[in-house]
Amino acid sequence: MGRGVEAGGVPAAGPRPARWSIPLIFFINGFVVASWVPHIPEVKERLALGEFQLGIALVAIAVGSVLALPFAGWLAGRFGSDAAARTAGLLLCLLLPAPVLAPTLPMLMLALLAFGAANGVLDVAMNAQGVLIEDRYGRPIFSSLHGLFSTGGLAGASLAGLVASAGVPARLHALGLAGLLAPLLLVAARAQLRDEAERANMPAVLARPSSALIGLGALAFLALMAEGAIGDWAAVFLREVRGAGMDGAATGFAGFSLAMAAGRFSGDWMRRHWSAAALLRWSGLICALAMAMALTAPGLVASVLGFTLFGLGLANMIPLLFGAAGRTKDVPASPGIAAVATAGYGGYLAGPPLIGITAEFIGMQLALVAILLGAMVIAAFPTLARDRADRAGPARHWRGTEWTGSSNVSL
After folding, report:
1. In sequence order, what are the residues at sequence separation of 6 or more whose Cβ sits closer than 8 angstroms to the Cβ of residue 175?
2. Mean pLDDT over residues 308-337, rounded?
3. Are the C-beta atoms of residues 140 and 399 closer than 8 Å to each other?
4. 196 falls in which pLDDT band (50, 70, 90)?
5. How far apart are the C-alpha atoms of 197 and 334, rounded to whole Å?
6. Which helix (H) or strand (E) holds 402?
7. What are the tens digits of pLDDT across the range 24-78?
8. Residue 227: CA atoms inside 13 Å, Cβ hemisphere, count?
9. What one-character DSSP code corresponds to residue 199?
10. Which CATH number fits domain 16-189: 1.20.1250.20, 1.10.3210.10, 3.40.309.10, 2.30.110.10?
11. Does the pLDDT value for residue 138 go beyond 80?
12. SS3 letters across 377-395
């Protein structure tokens, strides 16, 4: 495709450079966040922190992200998702050394709060930019963007582990990455599309979301609650209920993670052939059946396979829901995504402790049934995620790999 024509107030721009800039931004985001995680034990030891103190400090990242999300939508809409992604991405890269170098617990908490806030703004802005580029580029790309975020996380954590094993000081690793990734982020951000159209008629920062966004937010809450719960409790379930050893217990989450990545990299191909609503329905059904298998089928292998299939079903839920939020009628993409992301990350934070508290009373196996029920709810309400491509009909909207619908079609 050539250069795009001006539509809906969006200045004409060539989508191909932007098509390759936004995946790099997603990758850098995952890389930076994961690069901090392997340094947590060193920071704990250096500051002589107990488990409780470290836990409180780590919560600051999530708090910073959640507090920033509503403002992220307004900022990206007011100044453009391109400017917001560029600024927040640069801050995230430059803030990477801050928690590693923090001299005290209060400074560590402040650094992690700022780190989380920058990550929250970048999350909203880059997803809004992804929706814009997908609409202009002419084929689905959104699921693979989330796959690249996960790939960046794997690469960042792996490199940090290798550097630590080689005896490189944590501060040099963090400072070196900041110096390398910040310019790379700025170069990638130059090719983004400008979204001037969002700057008009912006809602208030904390405006009440529409009913459509409330529905999408509820589904995102359930999807990310499931992701957080599996991350925290799959290994515990396999060890306590299935009697697995440490290595066997780890295979459940490993299979889940690999299936998530595979599902996201294949999601764009599926999106070219099926509607968002159809994919969400099947995703929910696969998750429900997979969780039933993991919880009830006898033996470790069957449970691991169940958690793996659960990751495959869950993989594209958030890309589908964020994509639909970015195309909600009469709502600019950035505030729409921010509203749904806020609800979703609320589920991600609330899910694991709720499962743990419930397990104290009824046992881990029955507590995880809540995840199965959540998947069934998602499967029952897939039309909440119908985006404008679905309204035009997927066969007419995506023809092979080419865009055949209007970029101005609304929900």
Report:
1. 97
2. 88
3. no
4. low
5. 11
6. strand 402-403
7. 999 999 999 888 888 888 888 899 988 788 888 888 888 898 889 888 888 887 8
8. 23
9. G
10. 1.20.1250.20
11. no
12. HHHHCHHHHCCHHHHHCHH
- Adjacent-strand bridge partners of 399: 402
| Residue 122, number of CB atoms within 10 A of its CB | 31
The amino acid sitting at 263 is: G
The DSSP output letter for 194 is P
3-state secondary structure of 232: helix
pLDDT band at 310; cut points 50, 70, 90: very high
Task: Answer whether 16-189 and 211-398 agree in fold.
Answer: yes
Pick from 195, 200, 205, 198: nearest CA to 132: 195
Q: Are 274 and 398 in contact (CB under 8 A)?
A: no
Rounded CA-CA distance 308/392 in Å is: 34
Tell me the HSE value of 396 on the side-chain side, using a 13 A CA sphere: 9
pLDDT bin (cut points 50, 70, 90) of residue 208 is: low
Helices and strands (H, E) in the chain, number of each type: 18, 2
59: Cβ contacts below 8 Å, ≥ 6 apart = none
CATH class of the domain whose range is 211-398:
mainly alpha
DSSP one-letter code for 38: G
For the chain, domain boundaries: 16-189, 211-398
pLDDT in tens, 274-299: 888 999 999 999 999 999 999 998 88
